[in-house]
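Continuing the series of single-chain predictions for the mutant panel. This is the parent chain; the variants come on the following pages.
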Amino acid sequence: MYKKQTNRQLTIYDFDQPLGLTMNPENRWVKKADSIPWSVIEDKYAALFNSDRGNIAKPVRMALGA
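Parent structure:
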């Protein structure tokens, strides 16, 4: 069973750190995460879990380690 995420990933501008540090939008990992079509991947991932029984699958970004 898979439940689509209703809340989306925070943007780097919404991510507040306690020390006031900011994330660099030019960081290669930030750029890569922005270039991946997560909604398309999530739709394909959700199709793999067509049953309403069993444990709820982990979110696609967690499953892929992103």
